[in-house]
Amino acid sequence: MQAKKGIAILGSTGSIGTQALEVLASYPKYFDLQVLTAGMNANLLIEQALKFQPNSVVITDESQYQKVKDALWSEDIHVYAGQEALCQVVESTEVHTVLTALVGYAGLKPTIHAIEAGKTIALANKETLVVAGELITQLAKEKGVNIYPVDSEHSAIFQCLVGEFHNPIEKIYLTASGGPFRGHTHEQLKSVTLEQALKHPNWSMGAKITIDSASLMNKGLEVIEAKWLFGLAPEQIDVIVHPQSIVHSLVQFEDGSMKAQMGLPDMKLPIQFALTYPARLKTDFPRFNFMDYPQLTFEQPDRNVFKNLDLAFQAMAAKGTAACALNAANEEAVAAFLDKRISFLEIAELNAQTMHALANTPNPIYEDYVRADAQARAYVQEILK
Ligand code: NAD
Ligand code: MG
User: How far, in Å, from the CA of 281 to the mean position of ligand 1?
Assistant: First the structure.
């Protein structure tokens, strides 16, 4: 029998992490869970560790180390704490694939360590490619490491490309649901609330990406993610709003033919494909029924109202550390919006202000990204004082 695939899940207590564990639980003969990690949610991490019996767990919030250690003392499970531990656990020889399901810039360093250790990456943490796509893709090439997308749009593109890897892409269309504020005017957006922004029409996700979806920043981040994953020029990437979220994205080839990947919106499918590629394992997920969706519709995103999309295109064109600064500003702005310290429209305003104010470092090395990230965060915090 084929050896089981050793899996590390960074961010196992989140939306992607918990769905990944459902996938793993369905195929006990296929996967061997090695590592679970959480930011703050010690209770859920303990529960998951008791159920799945990984080799190691990491709680990055060090103040909760003793709690996790005490709860798992009788188990054969190593317990670690802190950000540095994340970088070490991914290097374990038993780990074959690292699923990066933590949120934000925090994913960058452990992903670099995983690639350096030659691990296959199942990438949910899109911020890693937004911040340092050049460095990550170059490093992956050097190490001969494959990065398989988990993001549903990028998984769709990847699925369309299977069997087509030698055929050039003319362009891709990333689909967007449009989020809860699709069709809103600038005037209407002035008074939207946090509770409204957190209600995504089609997907249930972590708080940060849900707000990013409402502001179209998520689609902007995905445009940059696609550039790096598929080696595309900015003019080869287009965004189309598709409110039903059934067509997950499309590829157009040089003969004019277009391929799309479709299905009900369920993140377990792209998570599973990233972990089992090139195999497709049988699932009991609900199947699509055409009669439930007699019409699939498409429309242009409103770039005048949702300014984040153009900011992402500008950052992509500017290269250097521009996208890193934009991402950092957005992480700070979204955190402030989640704390009810700023309004919804102020997110894009802070992003624009920060990106345009800070100097762009061309041909960045790792330290330049670290500096650009810190500078952008400090800049936003100064405005928010
Ligand atoms: P989430 O907030 O639900 O979960 C995040 C996980 O990361 C949790 O386990 C949390 O404990 C951990 N974490 C948070 N901050 C951390 C830190 N500083 N250090 C270490 N661990 C930390 O997020 P999510 O919705 O699961 O999203 C995870 C990633 O996947 C994001 O990059 C997101 O853009 C991407 N993604 C998510 C979805 C989705 O459906 N949720 C879809 C596509 C892409
Ligand atoms: Mg997506």
Answer: 25
Residues of the chain with pLDDT under 50: none
pLDDT in tens, 75-84: 999 999 999 9
Instruction: Check the CA dihedral 362-365-371-372 and report its sign.
Output: positive
Task: Name residue 81's beta-bridge partners.
Answer: 59
b/e for 46-66, b at 16 or more Cβ within 10 A?
bebbeebebbbbbbbbeebbe
What spacing in Å lies between the alpha carbon of 38 and ligand 1's midpoint? 10
Q: What's the 203 CA to ligand 1 centre distance in angstroms?
A: 14
How confident is the model over 174-196, as pLDDT tens digits? 999 999 999 999 999 999 999 99
Q: ∠ at Cα 340 (339, 346), nearest 5°?
A: 110
- Of the ligands numbered here, which is closest to the C-alpha atom of 177? 2
The whole-number pLDDT of residue 173 equals: 98
User: What was the pLDDT predicted at 1?
Assistant: 59
Contact predicate 13/38, CB 8 Å: yes
CA distance 296 to 217: 23
Name the residue of 209, 217, 273 whose CB sits within 8 Å of the most ligand 1 atoms, as the mutation to test its pocket.
Answer: 209
List b or e across 160-191, with b for residues whose CB sees 16 or more CB atoms inside 10 angstroms: bbeeeeeeebebbbbbbbbbbbbebeeeebee
The answer, as to whether pTM is greater than 0.85, is: yes
C-beta separation of 203 from 178 below 8 A: no
**Phi, psi (degrees; rounded to nearest 5) at 65:** -55, -50
Q: What does the pLDDT read at residue 35?
A: 98
Ligand with smallest separation from the Cα of 174:
2
Nearest atom within ligand 1 for CA of residue 11: 9
What CATH topology corresponds to 5-149? Answer: Rossmann fold (3.40.50)
Q: Best substitution site from 57, 61, 102, 158 to test ligand 1's pocket, by max atoms within 8 Å of Cβ?
A: 102
Phi, psi angle pair for 81, to nearest 5°:
-140, 155
Specify the domain boundaries for CATH 3.40.50.720 within the chain: 5-149
Atom 25 (ligand 1): residue with closest C-alpha?
A: 206
pLDDT at position 2, please? Answer: 72
